[in-house]
Every structure is written in structure tokens, then in C-alpha cells.
Amino acid sequence: MSLAKKKKSKLVRKAFPIIRTQPSSCGIVYQVDARRQGANSKGCRFNFRTLAEAKAKTAQILKELNKNGLEGLNFDPELRHMAMRAKSLLDPFGKTLADAVQFYLEHLKMETARASGALVSDLAEEWYVSKCNPTKTKPLRERIIEGIRETKNR
User: Fold this and answer.
1) Burial of 17 (0-12, 13-18, 19+ CB in 10 A)
2) Phi, psi angles (nearest 5°) of residue 60
3) Tens of pLDDT along 121-133?
4) Angle of helix 120-132 relative to helix 142-153, nearest 10 degrees?
5) 56-75: per-residue pLDDT in tens?
């Protein structure tokens, strides 16, 4: 029983992002390693069949890093896709994502205030009770109390 030699990877580019060759079931692939702090850090690795594709991805990663810093590099692709879709929906109205977020925050504040406020039916009930049992003023006529009761029920 002979042990097969394990193929090792070779560094093609040492600077960030690293490009190395990796053995694969389909032959050799070029891996672009965009993890900033090593194996246990955030970031991604991408595999390509050709060195040209790997170098193109490296250029794209460096451009993103220069443009947006580490936050842009580690930006979740799914979140980026959602932002692009939202932008395309807002463009016909001349609005930005910041406008939409501000509008929605105002909406949430109004909803919170509405939920924490008293209901009109509760306030109407209190008003009805106070009008039917006046303590400091003279009692109301039965016809007025009946009108108040009908209004409250509506």
C-alpha cells in the first residue's frame, strides 16, 4: 500500500490578496485569498481556472479596498444585491436609499407613538363617564347624555 503524495499549493502572488495554485479534482485552480487576517478572519476565497481570471479578481478586490476600505471589502454580497435592487426601485422617483431609510424611520416613530398612545374608544369612554357624572357642574339633561352615548358608540 503506497501513500500518494499530497500536492502542495504554490504562491503566485504574496501581497494581499494572495493568489496561490490549489490542487483540485479538475486539475489545478488559482485561488484568490481575500482574508485580511489569515485563515480565521473575515473575507472570502475565490477559485478560478485561469491565472488571468484570478488576476482580474485581485484587481477588483484592490479597487474595492481602495474605494471603500475594509468595510466595503467585507460587505455582504446579498446585502449589496438588495441595495442595488432597492436603488433601481427608487430611481424613477428621484429618491435615494438614504431618503427611503429616513422616511421609514419617521414611519416607525409614528407607529411607536401610535401604539403607546391611548385609544380613541378609551378616551371616549372616560369622557362619557365624566359627562354623565358631573361633580362640579350641574347635571346634564337626559337628551344630551343620550347624544353623548350615541356618539361614543359610533
Assistant:
1) buried
2) -65, -45
3) 777 777 767 766 7
4) 170
5) 999 988 887 777 766 665 66
